[in-house]
Amino acid sequence: MAGEGDLIRFQHSVTLDRDKCRGCTNCIKRCPMEAMRVQDRKARVIASHCIDCGECIRGCPYHAVKAKVDVYEDILQYKYTVAIADPALYAQFHHLDDVNLVLAALMQIGFDEVAELYREHRIITALTEQAIEEGTLPKPIISSKCPAVTRLIRVRFADLCDHVMPVMTPGELAAHNMREKICEKTGLGPEDVGIFYISPCAAKATILKMPLGIENSNIDKVHSVSDIYTRLLSPMKRIQDPPRIAEFNCAKYACTGTESKALHGRRAIYADGMENIIRLLEDVEDGKLDDFDFVELRACPGGCVGGVLNVENPYVAKFRARHLSSGDGPLPRPEEIPDSAFWEVPLEYAPVMNLDSNVAVALGKMQELERIVGSLPGLDCGSCGAPSCHALAEDIVRGRAQVTDCIFRRGLRGREGNNEEKGG
Amino acid sequence: MSEGLKLHFEVAPDDIAAAGNASTGTKNTLKKMGFPAAIIRRVAIAMYEGEINMVIHAKGGDVDVEIQPDRIVMTLADRGPGIPDIDLAMQEGWSTATENVREYGFGAGMGLPNMKKNTDEMRIDTQLGVGTTVTMTVYVA
What is the per-residue burial (b if ≥16 Cβ within 10 Å, else e) of A389-401? Predict the structure, then answer.
């Protein structure tokens, strides 16, 4: 391997169940980063290219590609546990009128405390409003709430890293200082406190392995919405009058557009789905959207309701999220906003897609790449294990594939006349 | 100097939606080669403006790009009407775009000035009734 990803240790939630993987071409074709290959009849992720968008998970018909999350029983490891619920969790339940029922049920299944993220979402809106007002970031400001988008910008859009709103995600913001407060309140040690995030997607599950904007995440474990959903159903049936834990709720923030609309009167646009957001980022990069204040992008269709770790159809969930939403209270006053909301570490471009760090060498490789592309059939059939002929040519110049991986080129050379893999 | 990397794109006539294919393709190639972001941005803007011109004023044409480690040379050749007065065409705000094109948000008279502003060298060869060839160079300092 060409030593990519040496600068940052790329870790991911996307994982493969090798027994279920049939070595087909679905995931390699779906990946917007061309980060998947099939080698020796099994899928593989190129760690430095993967942004944990979850498209491979969505596209695998055999459920072989999964997001690695923690198991519910992990709460037993801690003396005091907190559940931070993603807005998408609330949108999963049929006939839910009050999120307090979900929060109370979370406490029944074993969490000592629950965090509703309404306040954090409003703080981020207030800080974004302030950044637009004061012009502290280049226009348009790009939302940092979807970690897949932030990672996409980091590896593909060098020029846009300083457009990204440098604030923590709502979950990370809620977890910040939480441990200290609990230790103070309970007299427990920091290792006794477990902070759990209930995530709708692989991208948010990765924040604790590879945090953005901070050195170390304050979240200890991540559960999937689907796992917790199943466990909440029966306690939710039993609870009659849930205590009023949260006055407002953040449910509608699970839908793309909510963050933009909260910036009343600003020129804000929103988009979701990987293909759409890449196109939009290309336009921002070319300066075509300089007259916009804000761009809200979400990797999943519909927003976080479309995450692969959810239960409900995203469009049904979207309806429920809006139904549940309690409207917008006033924005928090500046003195209520913690300074710690901002990133400690700036977003830096990671040139993992480059063919070489030396432009002259890269030029030679690009010429070689174009020459190889010309010699391939151009069918993009995926039989070689790369998503396209162009991707195979790139793998060859990077030294991780050979021209004979192409079943057509192999035939031409009279070697291994059929398409059976050697030693398969 | 050894031969650089050559890219070729065709710009289709009357297809504003397809304008930008050459600049996006070039941009992504330059990114993979590790050129500085500021250089890539200038190349992309100049090329995009040129592509738009080829679609709205001419009947499409050919875009050729030659990439060297120290320079990027873009040649945009169209089969359009030619430019009768280059000095006038270079003035900011001067446009011969039709009302139809302006409705799309183009034709503000900033195309050629923007191309000149974002490149280090720009040469226009034009022949009335035959076509225009714009050659732009961006040096990598």
Answer: bbbbbbbbbbebb
Q: Which two tokens stand for residue A243?
A: 């205590």
CA distance A69 to A245: 27
- Say if CB A375 and CB A408 are below 8 A apart: no
Average pLDDT, chain B: 89
ipTM: 0.84
Q: Is the pLDDT of residue B110 over 80?
A: no
The pLDDT-based confidence of B106 (bands split at 50, 70, 90) is: confident
Contact yes or no for B67 and A363 at CB 8 A = yes
| CATH class (in words) of the domain with range B5-139 | alpha beta
Chain B residues inside the 8 Å CB shell of A162: none
CB atoms within 10 A of CB A252: 28
Interface-testing mutation among A284, A286, A361, with chain B (most B C-beta atoms within 10 A): A286
Q: Which of A67-76, A100-109, A384-393, A408-417 has the lowest mean pLDDT?
A: A408-417
Q: Which CATH number fits domain A1-68: 3.30.43.10, 3.30.1330.90, 3.30.70.20, 3.40.50.280?
A: 3.30.70.20
Question: Contact B5/A356, CB-based, under 8 Å?
Answer: no
CATH top-level class of A361-424: mainly alpha
Instruction: Please answer yes or no on whether A351 and B34 come within 8 Å at the CB atom.
Output: yes
Q: Residue A255 above 60 pLDDT?
A: yes
Chain B's closest residue to A354, CA to CA, is B32
Residue to mutate among A347, A359, A373, A388, with most B CBs inside 10 A, is A359
Please give the mean pLDDT across all residues of chain A: 91
* pLDDT score at A4: 41
Half-sphere exposure of B5 (CA within 13 A, CB side): 25
